[in-house]
Specification:
This protein has two domains: 148 residues, ATPase, nucleotide binding domain (Nucleotidyltransferase, domain 5), CATH 3.30.420; 303 residues, Nucleotidyltransferase, domain 5. The chain starts with 6 loop residues before the first strand and ends with a helix. By secondary structure, the protein is of the alpha/beta class. Strand 9, helix 11 and strand 10 form a beta-alpha-beta unit.
């Protein structure tokens, strides 16, 4: 096992070794474990120490590293111990690797473990042994297991040496490569040519500014409440009787959507001198935590997430032909024909076009997400990073950096990649024209204007979006509550 890949090699006397490797997903790799450690705010060694103290194993989906966060956060919200969660992650990795690579082949002794994760995480090897039903004597973990591939290279170099290089000559070679001119092959069109170009774009008609009004509480005033309880964040929107927004809130769940919504209510209560005059005529909730929030707080309505987003999108563009919603871990695509939903698609096995995709790399390169997004807007030569798994993209980025690409160009390349991953890797579109001419985008990811612009460049048309893209699910839920109330009273 490595950071981005896992391999199995089966040896049988008289036969060519059977080599298997993970192809399009990095679910069962070291990076998957690293992401869990980041979620816990600990080093991977500490994660190993936690796993050693575990008492129980819980099911965790080890497919996509980003999707697994949902399962982990669910366990955290149920107050499952961090030790049990850490061990459950190691177990999930073992199950994923064995299932995806063995594919029916029996794994028989002796088994040779190598790679950094096995070298530095003893508990991981224990879980592999348990999943495979092997004893410690039937397995081998060599000293410096993380250096086994490099050792193989050194052995081959010794056999095939065709000249001697000094260390000084090697250093000179690397310096020469560093000083080479940056190649501009496989680059994409700049998103904005200048600050003036960007400012002009911001003033265009494709940005819908949601009607707003003041939150009044001097006298009893009716309002309509919409909540989008997502897997990582909770969003709240309060509308008046004219469907104007009077109040919004956005909170990270920190593994507990119930507690996040409680905090929102407390904040709303403190935000006005007479909270008793805020009368909630009707309420609706959507999203991952719909059933929990609706039951716990006695909401009037629950609404399917895609319908909430569709309702909100029609406020932005009544003739909408396609809605693309990208959240932190999921994406939804709604194809519309004659005002009705014709087809819906959601990502099921891959999160490579989601908000976490950008956030992961912004953090990796040492930038806050907002600053990373701003850099991408004015990059002169965006890198073509293609469509890849979040973890596999690491290799492409490192290659671009070695070729001298600037952080700006890499950031802009991510904006294009998010769109390409959504449309071609996840939705598997054959033709961009399937989207129609009236495209609406929403979700927190589209706070990053460079991603909106990348979609416009690829679709060759204007893309509409609101000034509250991250709140559109809650906005749609609030609209639903308002209209259901009106319907029931007329």
């Amino acid at each position: 096992m490595g950071g981005e890949d896992s391999k199995m090699i089966f040896f049988e006397k008289g036969k060519v070794p059977d080599i298997r490797m993970n192809g399009s997903c990095a679910g069962g790799t070291g990076a998957f474990i690293d992401q869990t450690a980041m979620l816990f705010h600990v080093e991977t060694k500490e994660l190993n120490a936690l796993a050693a103290q575990a008492e129980n194993i819980h099911p965790i989906a080890s497919r996509c590293g980003v999707f697994s966060k949902t399962d982990i956060q669910n366990l955290m919200s149920r107050n499952i111990s961090r030790a049990d969660i850490a061990a459950s992650v190691f177990n999930a990795v073992a199950m994923q690797v064995v299932a995806s690579l063995a594919r029916g082949m029996d794994i028989t002794p002796k088994v040779f473990f190598c790679g950094g994760p096995f070298a530095f995480l003893p508990e991981l090897q224990k879980h592999f042994r348990r999943v495979l039903g092997l004893t410690e004597e039937e397995c081998m973990l060599p000293e410096n297991a993380q250096l086994i591939p490099a050792t193989g290279c050194a052995l081959l170099a010794d056999q095939q040496a065709n000249g001697i290089l000094t260390v000084e000559e090697l250093v000179n070679i690397t310096q020469t490569k560093t000083e080479m001119e940056v190649p501009l092959d496989n680059r994409l069109p700049a998103l904005f040519s200048s600050q003036e170009d960007y400012d002009l774009w911001l003033r265009s008609e494709n940005i819908y500014r949601v009607p707003r009004a003041e939150l009044l509480s001097d006298t009893p005033t009716p309002y309509f409440l919409g909540v989008d309880s997502g897997s990582t964040t909770t969003k709240l929107v309060l509308l008046d009787r004219y469907e104007r927004i009077v109040y919004t809130d956005y909170q990270r769940n920190e593994g507990d959507s119930f507690k996040a919504f409680c905090k929102m209510l407390q904040t709303l209560h403190r935000s006005t001198p007479h909270p008793e005059n805020i009368l909630i005529e009707a309420s609706a909730v959507t999203g991952y935590g719909e059933n929990l929030i609706r039951t716990a707080f006695n909401f009037d309505y629950g609404i399917v997430e895609t319908m909430a987003h569709f309702s909100a999108a029609k406020q932005v563009e009544p003739q909408v032909s396609f809605v693309l919603d990208i959240g932190g871990q999921d994406m939804k695509a709604i194809f519309v024909e004659n005002g009705s939903i014709r087809r819906m698609e959601i990502n099921e096995a891959c999160s490579s076009g989601c908000g976490s995709f950008i956030e992961t790399f912004a953090n990796m390169m040492g930038y806050p997400v907002a600053e990373f997004a701003q850099l991408s807007c004015f990059a002169p030569h965006p890198c073509d990073l293609g469509t890849r798994c979040t973890v596999f993209m690491n290799s492409k980025v490192k290659q671009a950096m070695q070729e001298g690409a600037s952080v700006d160009d890499i950031a802009a390349g991510f904006s294009y990649s998010v769109v390409k991953n959504c449309l071609f890797k996840v939705l598997k579109l054959k033709n961009i024209e399937e989207l129609g001419a009236k495209i609406v985008v929403q979700g927190g990811t589209f706070r990053n204007h460079s991603i909106v612009r990348a979609l416009e460049n690829m679709a060759h048309c204007k893309v509409a979006f609101s000034d509250i893209p991250e709140l559109m699910g809650a906005y749609g839920a609030a609209l639903y509550a308002s209209r259901m109330f009106e319907r029931s009273h007329h």
